[in-house]
């Protein structure tokens, strides 16, 4: 349930302080210490799970509900017109803290935080093959 050495578990135990925003029986939300923009918050499950794959699926409802509550409040407090909810899973995806968490990032038009660029598949067959390759693994 809790990992002794995990940074976010230490925050959950109160061993490391945080700027708390919101808490339920299942979820804690606090400000990111190095925000992309002021108001950048983190929503974490109270159960220790290194990433999305180890999370109990039935915590999804609690997480979505907390993301809605926190996202709305961050939006209002910062004057943001949009919110990115981002989850990094794995080092190559930018995950530094191995306790599953969601970033709640306030956005405004022209803030320069452009998301990654998309590029089309080479052709329709390539896209169809990719869909099939994923589908057969589900
Ligand atoms: P990630 O790269 O998705 O693992 O994000 C981890 C986030 O945790 C980073 O944005 C850090 O700035 C943030 N962070 C690290 N230590 C703390 C802390 N003590 N309190 C709040 N946020 C933290
Ligand atoms: Zn943890």
Task: Please explain how this structure is put together.
This protein has 138 residues and is α+β, with helices and mostly antiparallel strands. The chain has one domain: HIT family, subunit A (2-Layer Sandwich). The chain contains three helices and five strands, in the order αβββαββα. A five-stranded antiparallel β-sheet has the order 1-2-3-5-4, with helices on one face. The protein is globular and about 55 Å long. The two termini are 27 Å apart. The mean pLDDT is 96. The structure holds adenosine monophosphate (AMP) and zinc ion. Zinc ion (ZN) binds next to helix 1.
Uncertain residue ranges: none
The largest β sheet comes out as:
5 strands, antiparallel
| Fraction of residues in β-strands | 15-25%
The average pLDDT score comes to: 96
Query: How many individual helices?
Result: 3
Query: What is the radius of gyration computed over CA atoms, rounded to a whole number of angstroms?
Result: 17 Å
For the largest sheet, list the strands in their spatial order: 1-2-3-5-4
What top-tier CATH class fits best? Alpha Beta
Number of strands: 5
Total tally of structural domains: 1
Produce the secondary structure layout.
Elements lengths: L6 H7 L6 E4 L3 E5 L9 E5 L14 H19 L3 E5 L15 E6 L16 H12 L3
Antiparallel strand pairs: 1-2, 2-3, 3-5, 4-5
Protein name: HIT family protein
InterPro entries: HINT, Histidine_triad_HIT, HIT-like, HIT-like_sf
GO molecular function, one term: catalytic activity
């Amino acid at each position: 349930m809790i990992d002794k050495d995990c940074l976010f578990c230490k925050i959950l135990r109160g061993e490391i302080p945080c700027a708390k925003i919101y808490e339920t029986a299942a979820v804690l939300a606090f400000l990111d210490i190095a925000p992309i923009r002021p108001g950048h918050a983190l929503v974490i499950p109270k159960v220790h799970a290194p990433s999305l794959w180890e999370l109990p699926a039935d915590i999804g409802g609690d997480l979505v509900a907390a993301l809605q509550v926190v996202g709305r409040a961050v939006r209002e407090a910062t004057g943001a017109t949009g919110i990115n909810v981002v989850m990094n899973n794995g080092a190559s995806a930018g995950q530094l803290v191995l306790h599953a968490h969601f970033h709640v990032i306030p956005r405004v038009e022209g803030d320069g935080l452009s998301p990654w660029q998309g590029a089309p598949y080479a052709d329709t067959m390539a896209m169809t093959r990719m869909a099939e390759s994923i589908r057969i693994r589900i």
